[in-house]
Design brief:
Elements (H helix, E strand, L loop, with lengths): L8 H26 L1 H6 L2 H24 L6 H28 L13 E5 L14 E5 L15 E2 L2
Antiparallel strand pairs: 1-2, 2-3
């Protein structure tokens, strides 16, 4: 009769803790090496799949090392190879986001508003109180779609 060895509850807790630590380590490493801006542009399901897969591979490699008579056995090498493949996938996904999803600020149109103050050259008799009217004039470009009328009001002085 074959006896199956069941992991002790403390070992399960250790593997669960290692998974959570590995998950934090994978995403920290990924953001530092691949760049946080590239990681922000990446679809969530790709980050979830690669990140959780890499953390899971770390735990499975550790479990294989604990279960075998030697630390580096066939199971450990298999899961270490899977981990390297997943981390390579993380690098390739970051590279793809760098090449194709990153926005280049130089290609963006300038959306700033250009305003200037000028004085009307009107006769002093036509303005209220003998002073000249000062008026703001806006350029042709709006800031993020704001109406140009906001900058084109006049005030009599």
């Amino acid at each position: 009769m074959k006896v199956h060895h069941r992991p002790m509850p403390i070992l399960r807790l250790a593997y669960a803790t290692q998974f959570l630590i590995a998950l934090i380590a994978v995403f920290t490493l990924w953001s530092q090496v691949g760049g946080q801006s590239h990681l922000d542009l990446m679809p969530w399901y790709l980050k979830l799949g690669l990140g959780v897969g890499a953390a899971f591979a770390v735990v499975k490699a550790t479990a294989a090392a604990v279960a075998g008579s030697h630390s580096w056995n066939a199971g450990t090498l298999k899961w270490f190879g899977i981990l390297l493949l997943l981390l390579t996938g993380c690098g390739l996904a970051s590279y793809y986001c760098h090449m194709y999803l990153e926005t280049d600020e130089q290609d963006q149109p300038d959306n700033s508003t250009v305003s200037e103050m000028y004085q009307h050259k009107t006769p002093a008799a036509k303005t209220a109180g003998g002073t000249r009217a000062i008026q703001a004039r806006s350029g042709s470009r709006n800031l993020a779609g704001l109406p140009a009328a906001w900058a084109t009001h006049s005030a009599a002085m």
